[in-house]
Amino acid sequence: QVQLVESGGELAQSGGSLRLSCAASGMILSIVSMGWYRQAPGKQRELVAQRTSGGSTTYADSVKGRFTISRDNAKNTVYLQMNSLKSEDTAVYYCNGRIYTSPGTWSDYWGQGTQVTVSS
Questions:
Q1: Please, are residues 111 and 6 in contact by the beta-carbon 8 Å criterion?
Q2: Residue 120 has pLDDT above 90, yes or no
């Protein structure tokens, strides 16, 4: 099994910054990608940012230029640096990992979610 544990979500002021962390552990053979999704009340879960093991990154248009995703491959940890926060960034943020646990078999794993609240 694989576990993803997030941390860093809290209340922040508009214009402020937060840094989320997500550590993957367990029976990890290799990691295809790790990323962050978010879900605001009444809305569908959406991709925020994703980084592949090769270093390719994808960002939602709404966070480009404000958020940065990075990974520490040695620690199987992904970070999301969030700057210039806006009230519309308020959501539960979920870590996602696409992970091989055996040769030829990968699955999507999710963290429990961490609440980010931005006050204006």
A1: yes
A2: no
